Amino acid sequence: MATLDGQPVTPDDLLPLALTNLGHFTSMRVGADGRITGLALHLERLVRDCKTVWGADLDSVRVRDYVRQALDGHDGPCVIRVTIYDPTVDMGHPADAGQPRVLVTRRPAGAMPPPPLRAMSVQYERDLPAVKHTGLFGALHARRAAQLKGFDDALFVGPDGHVSEGGTWNVGFLNDQGVIWPKAPVLPGVTMALLQQQVDHQVSGVSLKQAKRMHVAFATNTSIGVRALSAIDDTPMAIEHPMLSKLREAYMSIPGETL
Asked: Where are the strands (E) in the chain, listed by range?
């Protein structure tokens, strides 16, 4: 299912996104009851990023209407992705584009939480990390490199040797002091923000060596909730911990919002 401004999308509509790939998005998990956890934060992200990427004001009420339309008649959990892009964009003159439109797609949701993942450290920092943009080449290239080495995904390490985030997820850690989120240029994930509202935490620089000494490492995003890391490089990590269970319970207890 895909619509552009509420109408069925055509291949011609998608060509500029496929060939130029200038845009931003958010992905939202919709529960069986039709509610969306963190809906307000997802909409805030879209409005904020639209101003940054396009210099335009996005009507969040209109976005709600398009998402509601995409869910009409659909039962069961799913993931809705809202992508904001301008089909008139030209690679040679991107400054001429400034009329972003709303692409809404729907796909089935996976089980939560998914099994633990093994992460390989990769030195990498996303372009404009504060924006959830469609420029995923670097992140997916790192993920592919990790998978070719037998891992599930990549864990990014900045030039300063500090851990930042994963391929498409935020990373957090547990030690004797509690929950620690890396202090680094990262995408401000909605799931991370919701957990920070629910559970006491610290934000601190975490070197790769320190990360491997933590009691637990975990990944968070809308699609996976809270997912344990079973290894960082060749260092095994615990996948069960009372605080990890508390984080999952805290996230699952957050009431979903209605459209």
From this structure: 2-4, 7-8, 24-30, 78-85, 101-108, 117-123, 153-157, 163-166, 170-175, 178-182, 201-204, 216-221, 225-232, 235-236
